[in-house]
TrEMBL record:
InterPro entries: Lambda_DNA-bd_dom_sf (IPR010982). Residues 84-112 are annotated as: Disordered. One of its GO terms (molecular function) is DNA binding. It comes from the Bacteria. This is Helix-turn-helix domain-containing protein.
Length: 112
C-alpha cells in the first residue's frame, strides 16, 4: 500500500488541523458515498462523524483504531491526514495515577 502523505515529518507536509480531510480520505478509501455510509463502515453513529467533521468532538483513540482497522491506513498517516502534529500521544501526570487505598484507622496512626 502506498503512503497517502510524504512521511518526511516536516510540519508543512501535514497541513492545518482538519478532521474533515481525514473523513474525506477514509470515505474515498472505503468507497463510502457520504458520512452515513462511512459511519456504517466504521460502526459508529452518524452524529459522531458529524461532530468530528465540525470540530465539536476530537478524534479519540477508539475511533482512530476503528478507522485504521477498516481502512488499513497506518495510525500515523491517519493522524497526519487530520493535521495532528504531536509526535506522541501523552497522558497528563494526573491521569491513571494509582490511587492509594487507606485502611480504616490509618489517619489515627500518623503520630505513633
Amino acid at each position: 500500500m502506498e503512503p497517502l502523505l510524504n512521511n518526511s515529518g516536516a510540519d508543512h507536509d501535514i497541513g492545518p488541523y482538519n478532521p474533515g480531510r481525514l473523513l474525506d480520505t477514509l470515505a474515498e478509501r472505503l468507497n463510502a458515498k457520504n458520512d452515513a455510509a462511512l459511519s456504517r463502515a466504521l460502526e459508529v453513529a452518524p452524529p459522531v462523524l458529524s461532530k468530528i467533521r465540525h470540530g465539536r468532538l476530537p478524534v479519540g483513540a477508539t475511533i482512530l483504531l476503528r478507522m485504521h482497522e477498516a481502512s488499513g491506513i497506518p495510525i500515523r498517516e491517519l493522524r497526519d491526514l487530520m493535521g495532528d502534529r504531536r509526535g506522541r500521544m501523552r497522558m497528563s501526570p494526573q491521569e491513571f495515577r494509582p490511587k492509594t487505598a487507606q485502611q480504616p484507622g490509618d489517619e489515627h496512626q500518623l503520630g505513633s
